[in-house]
Amino acid sequence: MAKITKVSPLAPAAFPDLPVIDGVTFSTVAAGVKYTGRTDVMLAHCVPGTTIAGTFTRSATRSAPVLDCQAKLGGPSDDGAAILVNSGNSNAFTGRNGLAATDAIVQATAKATGIPAARVFTASTGVIGEPLPFERITAKLSELNDTLSADRMADAARAIMTTDTYPKGASATCDIHGKEVKIAGFAKGSGMIAPDMATMLVYIFTDARINQAALQALTSQACDETFNCITVDSDTSTSDSLLVAATGTSGVDATSDPGFQAALHDVMLDLAHQVVRDGEGATKFVEIVVTGAVDNASAKTHGLSIANSPLVKTAIAGEDPNWGRVVMAVGKSGAPADRDTLSIWFGDTLVAENGWVSPDYVEADAAAHMKSDHIRIRVDCGMGDGTATVWTCDLTHGYIEINADYRS
Amino acid sequence: MAKITKVSPLAPAAFPDLPVIDGVTFSTVAAGVKYTGRTDVMLAHCVPGTTIAGTFTRSATRSAPVLDCQAKLGGPSDDGAAILVNSGNSNAFTGRNGLAATDAIVQATAKATGIPAARVFTASTGVIGEPLPFERITAKLSELNDTLSADRMADAARAIMTTDTYPKGASATCDIHGKEVKIAGFAKGSGMIAPDMATMLVYIFTDARINQAALQALTSQACDETFNCITVDSDTSTSDSLLVAATGTSGVDATSDPGFQAALHDVMLDLAHQVVRDGEGATKFVEIVVTGAVDNASAKTHGLSIANSPLVKTAIAGEDPNWGRVVMAVGKSGAPADRDTLSIWFGDTLVAENGWVSPDYVEADAAAHMKSDHIRIRVDCGMGDGTATVWTCDLTHGYIEINADYRS
Question: Where is this site: Involved in the stabilization of negative charge on the oxyanion by the formation of the oxyanion hole (chains A, B) (predicted)?
Fold first, then answer.
């Protein structure tokens, strides 16, 4: 395993101050699942009444904990909920033993916390295909339950990191009928990131009161506009999980509140961007806006084709305003495109229009933008009203270094 | 532009001796389209009666010469044919000027060779989106026509190279009713390679007699099994063209001959493998065999998902038998898969079966295979009879070096 000691140059200056979400407590422990000298298990405990929504990888080879969580979503919220996550081993592609390991962790968590097994959600992240030494985790559950504390969300964010170079947290508040509702959460993920959830684990908590069906609808929509619009390397993990837990402790019903919807979206977008900013080897954060496509789905298809193109991503790494590769990526995406109505901008510089380089284009302008660590590419298809925005990072030697050596 | 001086470690020992194909002559010239100190234009001249079949990129942003060639396929063969190819500039995404440049080259070729413009096929490969200085090419057409020679196919292969580190040629013969028929051809391509033709130019010549419709059917089928089964970086070019020219000069009708079909397939497969072996930065040739899928199309989908996965490709670069990433790639492909019926081999070593690591698996065995420069990965889906084989290369620092600096 490669030693990853350097924090991404695109990392935020500091981990944000996250508000305490009333009704949720956290604890972490160093169980030695694989790593040494760091925490690798986190427990989140949610009070009775907490509703849980989630989205998961669409991989056909989902891990045991993902299948277990999916089966449990939408269950009764009377008895609270627990979330138990380990890093170091994903318990994915571990056959019957994988199911047994998940079950052992669920049962031990239920026993330690007093929360029914049907309300214990687990996740495992790390190496695929190796047996999860679940006994190391179950041995720590009493300690985890005994050390739960409302102010340890940042510790929880750290415990679930794998190749991440920094922990990722975000929060927002919104005002509903004069009362404040809080949302705060954290995420892990840096490689194997692509739409349909990628290798990400995301846990978001709010003190809003909202029924499960409404929370699920909001969560799915926000996920489509945030986590499903980011890509690091087009690879999709077997373990991706996002859970949103609403404790209801604020007493404020957020069910149809547009402010709550926007705040939840903002927290997810912040975390999604942080995942891209920690993309393996990333040196540039890249925003790709597609407009003028025949519809929104086509715009997203074009955007992801650009974002996933190794030739586009290496050109960005090389600070080369190589719009020819953008044309190539639009052409191969499979969505409708017309070469002669395409326009392309790098930053604010119109590079190409009407099927060719813009008459006013001065390469130095686009080249100057490419020096930035926040690259903006805009493509207008000139065909309709479809729009989409996706986010990615560049493809660098760092990606090769991390992935040619690290057994993930 | 990066200086690419090192020949791929996977290159064949030498360019093969290609037989003369009666009825075809070649010439090359250094026109200075972009490169200096090397040839960059080739002309192939085919005798009257030559039928031409072809396959082309499916990109929605095809280059002007591709559109021109596609319109001409299937035309009458009475007046022979000419093929004119330049490297250094792809004349792709060059708007109306691109069409005008193609037209100027076609007309000049027709004038110099006496072959009607409707039978002049052109291609351009190199940088996208910059105006093609076609006058440099048209100025050389008399010289090209005056120096045509039957034994210059190897020179032609060299003239069309871009980031290729070696020229690519292949040949085969077959016996039809006691008479020998020859096939020989050449290709260029090293990056932006993916199914649906990729950044490749391929020209194959035979002295067989075969009508255009039959030749087209054979060509399309062989292309599906060869060039459309290779991938370097999942990127698809705007310029990919493959032409097969049958001069008929042997007098032997190959229309329904299975030996001819097999020989044409062999030449294409040889050239396709050489393209992969010249994959940008490649250090390992990778063969991926998928069996037991629900159908052949699903097998190919799984195979290409594995072959295009940056995480699989970097693991191979790192000589890591990381079968977890293979599972991941099968899971994300979109084709049907069942985690618990998957089996995976690296070389001859059964690594995983029944949804988990094989009980007899010894990592040292798979690790030893990964040291080879010819990696074989086999995946059995355990679901049906669908099979496919695809070929790719690893993803290395060399790919980043070439593509972060080279304006292709």
Answer: 125-126
Indicate whether A197 pLDDT > 50.
no
Distance from CA of B191 to the nearest CA of A (A): 9
Residues in chain A within 8 Å Cβ distance of B92? 324, 327
Angle made by CA atoms A196, A201, A207, in degrees to the nearest 5: 110
B408 labeled part of a ligand binding site: yes
Q: How high is the mean pLDDT of chain A?
A: 90
Q: Annotate B109-158 with DSSP letters as a single string.
A: HHHHH---GGGEEEEEEEESSS---HHHHHTTHHHHHHT-BTT-HHHHHH
Residue of A283, A186, A311 whose CA lies nearest to B233: A311
Contacts of B364 (CB under 8 A, 6+ apart): none
Do residue B327 and residue A95 have CB atoms under 8 angstroms apart?
A: no
- What is the set of domains in chain A, with CATH numbers? 24-277 (3.60.70.12), 285-405 (3.10.20.340)
Q: How confident is the model at residue A194 (pLDDT cuts 50, 70, 90)?
A: very low
Contact between B324 and A129 using a beta-carbon 8 Å cutoff: yes
Give the model's pLDDT for residue B129.
Answer: 78
**Catalytic status, residue B102:** no
**Whether pLDDT at B3 is above 60:** no
> With 80 as the cut, is the pLDDT of residue B346 above it?
yes
Helices B310-317 and B296-308, packing angle to 10 deg: 60
- CB–CB of B235 and A328 under 8 A? yes
Q: What is the mean pLDDT of residues A189-201?
A: 58
Confidence of residue A222 (pLDDT cuts 50, 70, 90): very high
Position B332 scores a pLDDT of 82
Predicted local confidence at residue A196, as pLDDT: 35
- pTM of the model as a whole: 0.83
Instruction: Give the mutation candidate from A61, A238, A302, A330 for the B interface (greatest B CB count, under 10 A).
Output: A61
Q: What dihedral do alpha carbons B298, B302, B305, B311 form, nearest 10°?
A: 170
* Residue A227 CB neighbour total at 10 angstroms: 25
Give the residue with greater pLDDT, B106 vs B359.
B106
Q: Which residues of B touch A89 (CB under 8 A)?
A: none
- Of the residues A199, A219, A301, A387, which is catalytic? A199
CB B227 within 8 A of CB B185: no
For the ranges A146-155, A317-326, B210-219, B228-237, the lowest mean pLDDT is seen at B228-237
In sequence order, which ranges of A79-211 are alpha helices (DSSP H)? 95-113, 134-138, 141-146, 153-159
Of A196, A332, A397, the CB nearest to B397: A397
For an interface test with A, which of B393, B403, B405, B406 has the most A Cβ atoms less than 10 Å from its Cβ? B403
Dist CA B403 CA B134 (whole Å): 26
Q: For position A198, what pLDDT does the model report?
A: 39
In the predicted model, what is the mean pLDDT of residues B301-323? 91
Nearest CA to A270 out of A399, A184, A210 is that of A184
pLDDT digits (tens, 9 = 90+) for B104-123: 999 999 999 999 999 999 99
8-state DSSP, A108 = H
Catalytic-labelled residue, pool B199, B206, B238, B291 = B199
* First vs last C-alpha separation in chain B: 8
